[in-house]
Write a structure and sequence with these properties.
The chain is mostly helical. The longest helix has 22 residues. The chain is globular, with a radius of gyration of 17 Å. About 0% of the residues are buried.
């Protein structure tokens, strides 16, 4: 199997998984909690790896249809799982420089 075949297969599998997850929004019990937790952990690991290599726009325009409430619930639970306070997140962002610069914000004025 060539590397392009592997990439095609991976893309197809991810598309199918995204479809299953989208359908589960209306029926959350379709996805068992342990499997969802494992999926979230692996997605966060993958996101972090890609961010370290320069990916800084993880979602399509409009945040992929996510609501503020959905994001706040997920982020709050992730921070709580690791016993990290919002203040600590802010300090880490300031010390590491890993924050969104004003010109990178999706709501930045267009010049």
């Amino acid at each position: 199997m060539s590397s392009s075949d592997v990439l095609d297969h991976t893309a197809e599998a991810l598309t199918r998984a995204a479809d299953v997850l989208a359908a589960a929004v209306n029926d959350p019990d379709r996805i068992p909690d342990p499997e969802l937790r494992a999926l979230i952990a692996n997605v966060v690991r993958l996101y972090a790896a890609k961010a370290e290599y320069g990916m800084r726009t993880p979602l399509p325009p409009g945040a992929g249809g996510l609501t503020v409430t959905e994001v706040m619930l997920a982020v709050t639970d992730l921070l709580h799982a690791l016993n990290v306070q919002v203040f600590e997140l802010s300090m880490w962002q300031a010390m590491s420089g890993n924050c969104i610069a004003p010109h990178q914000r999706v709501d930045a004025p267009q010049s």
